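tool=predict chain=A
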Amino acid sequence: MDGAIVYLFFFFFVVCVFTSSENKSYDEMTDGEREQIEKTLFVLDQFCGSDVLYHELIQIAPASCSLPKLHTVKECRSHLNATIGKDIEKVPGPHAGAQRNLLHAITAQLGDMDDIPPKVRVRVSCDGARMSRKSNFVIVTYSLLDIEQYSSPKGNHVIAVVNGPESYATLETSLKDVWFQVSKLAADKKVVVKGKEVAVETILGGDLKFLGLVLGLSAATAHHACCWCKVHKDHRWNVDFPSNKYTDPPLARSMGELQTQNPVVPSAAEAGPPKRGNKFGQKAKPLVNLPLEQVVIDELHLMLRITDVLTDNLLQQTMWLDKQAKSKTLAGPHTEMLVTAISACGVSFSVWEKTNADGSGSGRLDFTSLMGPDKKILLQNLPEKLEGSGALNADTENDVLLMWTTFNDIYANLGKEEFTDGEITQLEEKMKTWIKRFCELGFTAPGFGKKRVTPYIHAMLFHCPDIIRRFGNLKQFTGNGVEKTNDEARRSHMQKSNKWDACADVLLHSGRRQILSHHCREKRKYKKKDEEYWTANIKESRRKRKRISR
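tool=predict ok
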């Protein structure tokens, strides 16, 4: 009997020793211990660190370093996933996908605030993002413009992910619940948070491909491709019309016309020759129901697509000069000088001949698809590198380079936070002058001309000023945050998902980061002592660095 008592005493002693704070479960821990675990989980999710990596770090960490145990981090993750997963469900339709309720997400986010604002502006965006060679995700996000950092992933929250092509059929079937919620939010103009009504202004933003799809319009190559007016593509360049010509009826579109598919017919001089049953580019009913005044263009893609046109024009001109010089190769000396000038800006760039389906040469050049930061570098530095380089025709070189420098000034002005009425008028005049030169150069320089005025160029002049007058600036509708959120989704898909339920994994990963975002470390401020080094010398030193693989 005495031996049994001693055995039981020893057993309880061992249990007490091994149930110290280090071995407690997540539910048994104090608030301070949970906070440390949440910080650890946030860092792992922020940088897509794996559990194996964290386990190895614990093993090599010194004894004085009290890192949370891996099992507690996993328990914390499971706890958050269970909370987030209550609001996640499968999307309808044939494609794999997952979604959250937009209204619930906004209400919950506002409810977590200490001071609930009386009014918020909600921007809903959608974009396609390639995840791998075989998978392409369509990602829907929302952001609270007046409260969050709209140009950062922290201010853009994923509410739906669909594994399918970015097409009207996908948006219509798989995301119909999301569009119903967007339309309801726009119609109600409010949400109720803890018994308090909060006024809501709903804004739909994105690139022209997404906006055209969700409005049921044809592609950018159609005769009537503008989302806001019915202008024919042959008249997109016309700056002789007054500014309100494209924003007022009968040339302007309206949501009522799109819903009934019975547009008001403008004159032939504005919308092209009359055509029986002309729907002015409308192929289907719009997926959302909100005023077109609340549909805005993405400022980032505006710059990207117009810069693509200017870059392609440079290539067309150098190819034409090489042809005149009877070069034996498609990318002759003038094209090589252009590539050298672009590389001198610190941008990796190359050209190659496109091939036909049978593998033969097409006689056309393609070039490296550049990212946003690289294109901004070219806008600022390429004209100086090309001036006097001999890559362009001496007769039109100054005019062509002026198109680059002027557009760089226009884009910088479009990115301003505040405008006066006079500044908007000055910006309009500068853009009109730019488009006039663009059209006039069509007679002397390849790639320019009236037929090369794209929907983005048309929207920049005739619709962006109207958006600025209505909302104060265009910068708040930038797609930087959306694109960075796509990058985060890609990292999550490749590094934090076993691909069994990939779309839901992206939503869970995004939801955890949103809940734990208050644990984000405030970065220390760094003052650059040598500005010239960071703006110019660093690029030169990188360019001169020896490459082992070449």
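The longest strand covers residues 119-130. The two ends are 82 Å apart (CA to CA).
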